[in-house]
Specification:
It holds the Pfam family DUF6670. By secondary structure, this protein is mostly beta strands. Helix content is 7%, strand content 51%. It has one domain.
Length: 357
């Protein structure tokens, strides 16, 4: 019932077409098609030189109803409340692997931020800004005085998106990027991706069912892997108590965004070494230090494998999640190459199993 209520998913059809929906990339919950429950921006750069190794940005506007991504600590009644109305909550999370390079803060969008109807420029206090020159260019700056670090990203966005989901009630897309990062005064070539999502409860789904699905979503992983030859792999999985696991793998080229392969059910993830880790709010989730992810088709033929070893500190991500970077050996259609990856990882299944014993 929950899956049917979302309506038809046009993700594959949209991925096959050039991206021209620049007008939807807006933070406002009241943008056309809304009111939206939340919107999201993400930037993922999996490969930087030492000591940075990777750079990520996770932005949420509104209070996400999925428990695993819910920043209730900044919402009304929370221990770090910054708003009187949850609709005005927005959070910024960004990090690299370098010592001290991690930042998490909640803002009141009605007083601390600038979100014009045009969708650019966007500002979160004096800490963070994004400025788009649609359709192709963006400048992103972070200056975190209390954490003594800053950066500036200038990049081009490819007009070829991967759509993870495209329904009238939930849209999530990824655009390849390439450009330059300036960290500690040093210009560094970069490639990666920028993402945008927006979501609202489907009117055909009873609110109590929607709430139950949100509460039962207890596992989410998302990875971006950069190969040395300009290929990029996006892969992940999400689970809840109402539908089969949703798995996806997309192999594409950067900077043009040409999709080489995509798989939707064949992903297998094996944790070779994992542990419970605790975030800055005292909450735990399970995160691996070694893992393999593979795509197996037909009668057992393996067409892709990512063997990863986490080699960075874990940073707070969205909600209950963590962000980290890793070295990888990727085997794609029989060819082995070394690569660099990064992830968002939330796994609450083990804790819930223990709680139910």
């Amino acid at each position: 019932m929950a899956a049917k209520a979302l309506g038809p998913n046009e993700a594959s059809a949209r991925t096959a077409q050039p991206f021209n929906a620049w007008d939807i990339i807006r933070p406002s919950l009241h943008a056309p098609g809304g009111p939206w429950g939340w919107t999201h921006y993400g930037i993922y750069i999996p490969h930087l030189p030492q000591p940075y190794q990777y750079l990520n940005v996770l932005i949420l506007v509104g209070l996400v109803d999925l428990t695993i991504f819910n920043h209730a600590e900044f919402a009304p009644g929370g221990p770090k409340a910054v708003v009187h109305d949850a609709e005005h909550l927005t959070t910024v999370m960004t990090s690299t692997a370098s010592k001290g390079h991690h930042f998490v803060r909640g803002y009141d969008s009605s007083t601390d931020c600038e979100f014009p109807d045009s969708g650019t420029p966007l500002r979160w206090g004096k800490d963070f800004s994004m400025e788009f020159t649609f359709p192709h260019k963006a400048v992103v700056t972070g200056a975190f005085e209390t954490h003594d670090w800053e950066y500036r990203l200038e990049f081009d966005m490819s007009p070829q998106a991967v759509w993870f989901i495209a329904t009238p009630f939930y849209e999530h897309l990824s655009l390849p990027i390439s450009g330059t990062a300036v960290l500690s005064g040093e210009p560094i070539p970069i490639s990666g991706c920028i993402e945008y999502a927006r979501c609202k409860p489907p009117p055909g789904l009873p609110l109590e069912i929607h709430a139950a699905v949100a509460r039962s979503t207890n596992y989410f992983i998302y990875h971006v892997v950069e190969l040395r030859d300009g290929r990029q792999i996006l892969w992940g999985e999400v689970r809840n108590g109402f539908m089969p696991p949703r798995k996806f793998v997309h192999v594409r080229t950067v900077p043009d965004g040409r999709v080489l392969d995509e798989y939707t059910t064949e992903l297998r993830v094996e944790l070779l070494d994992d542990e419970l880790v605790t975030d800055s709010s005292g909450r735990q989730t399970r995160v691996p230090s070694k893992f393999t992810a593979s795509v197996v088709v037909g009668s057992g033929r393996k067409v892709l494998e990512v063997a990863g070893r986490v080699n960075t500190p874990l940073r707070d991500g969205a909600g209950r999640g963590f962000v980290g970077g890793y070295d990888a050996v990727v085997t794609y259609k029989g060819e082995e190459t070394r690569a660099h990856g990064m992830f968002e990882w939330v796994d609450l299944e083990l804790q819930e199993q223990k709680a139910n014993l």
